[in-house]
Amino acid sequence: MPAGAEGWQRMYPYFLVSQPEGQPAEDSRFWFADSMHWSRAVHPFDSIGAEAVYYGAGVNSARSIALPSALGLDVRMVNGYVYICPLPVTDPAEIERRLVLFQERAGFYYKNWDDLYARWQEKMLVAVRRMKALKFEPLPEFEPLEVVTEGRGCSVSWDLVENYHRLINDFFLVWQYHFEMLGLGYGAYLVFFGLCKQAFPEIEDQTIARMVAGVEGIAFRPDDELRRLAKLAVELGLGEVLDSRDSPDEIFAALKRRTGGERWIAEFEAARDPWFDYFAEYGFMHDQETWNGNLVIPLQGIARYVGLLQAGEEIDRPVARLQAEQDEIAGEYRALLTPAEATKFDEALGLSRAVFPFIEEHNIYVEHWSHAVFWEKVRELGQVFVKAGFFKETNDLYYLNRFELDQALFDLVESWAIGVPARGVQHWHAEIAERRKIMTALRSASPAPAYGIPPKEVTDPFAIMNYGVTTERVADWLDQTAGSNNDGQLKGIPVSPGVVEGLVRVIRHEDELSQLLPGEILVAQITAPSWASAFSVVSGVVTDIGGMMSHAAIICREYAMPAVVSTGFATTRLKTGQRVRIDGRKGTVTPL
């Protein structure tokens, strides 16, 4: 625990923090930092994400589709960071019992996948619209007259309480939707990966992945919009305006003075809804921005593409090449199989390709569109507290967890109703000041990638495919934590082939992407989908976490860029300006 962070445990719900009576059992398990979704120490209110995510993951894996060899992912806050623990099923009899349930339930989903996905999309859009409709308005001096004349008998202040509960409920609901089909999607991948490994023991994981990954869909749409706008800017002769370091207001003012500028602005505005409701990171923390919230981000992406176009480079995604490559690789391996084996291969590959759109696109609906609305509404609620004099500033809200905020909200409306000062004002002003100091201390330290006793085998599909937490990676992380690797070389999962040397650029936040220079090696805890335009600048990618089907892996294969993910320590052991060699086939990062 960093100095100055004493007492951090009280900021979070008790069930997210280790308790003395459960400590021995928890220490005997394996925990790894979910730095993919929470790259920094988490404010108390933001811990709602850890609750919702792993409730949704657990209920789906363990209780709904009944994965045979894995339960849910347990979750704890440790020094302000989110750690999770895969829970395997090891009893053969229990695996068999669960397998019967799984086959029936998974079979139904696989058989009706397209229809269920269409229904899923509509459910998500309904939830997003419902959250958007919620209102958090300041408390009036008196109830509106219509409360009396319409005989409502219920205060408008109660709308605040009800709408807060509705917002929280919908946040948890969309995270159940998130996992409704995700485990089955990753399960289909694992079956295909296993079949290929059995038939072709020497085949590389990234080769298998290249047969599966889709190349079209709404997951790529936000970045495609940036490319489209860059092309239009060059066509209209506006490239130099966008390729400036001016503020968004200055850029738009300059565009309005240019022929074609109004047309370009209209196209930009049309793209914003919904494609710029897109987080710079993953949208799990209140201080992460959407493109709509910070127009510098998409404008920088457009400027990067403008620069490439003006240099004569091609910026279109190589969709035709990727599709041809998929079919070519699959055909080569299929030709080596017997007819019976080829039939199984076709079925497994077909299912993996069928589930891929959901795997890539679900984030748009959940982490981006629904989270964008959620944080917007939370900010509106914070403004209600500020206007009432309960909080000094809107950001004070995030130093309370969701249960404490519920109490504070009732304190606010009851004291307003009675006509007395809210009792929480003095209490929370002092406590928030203390929690600010604690959060500063927590964010000054980097989390260990993992701790505890490693399992004999990692079986959870989310841990393997998304996080890159495999049996081998666990052992290597713990070895490196113990200091057994003294040569400085980092090992990870090779996800895109090629060898490249270059200077490191450690990126901890998307605001820093503008610092990237051509040919540098991008090193980050994880890359976010919105970083796509930066991939056109760098020569290689290294991440702390991420699996074979993580976004970083998929995009690097698309760009034919050497990449190593799940190194565990890259952002803490490599420094900007350091020269390294990446081997995207061996999975090594070697300081030079």
From TrEMBL:
Domain PEP-utilising enzyme mobile: residue ranges: 518-587
Gene that this polypeptide is encoded by: ppsA
Xref: PANTHER family: PHOSPHOENOLPYRUVATE SYNTHASE-RELATED, PPDK_N DOMAIN-CONTAINING PROTEIN
Protein name: Similar to subunit A of phenylphosphate synthetase and phosphoenolpyruvate synthase
InterPro entries documented for this protein: PEP-util_enz_mobile_dom, PEP_Utilizing_Enz, Phosphohistidine_dom_sf
Pfam families, per database record: PEP-utilizers (PF00391)
Molecular function as annotated in GO: transferase activity, transferring phosphorus-containing groups
SUPFAM superfamilies hit by this protein: Phosphohistidine domain
Organism field: Aromatoleum aromaticum (strain DSM 19018 / LMG 30748 / EbN1)
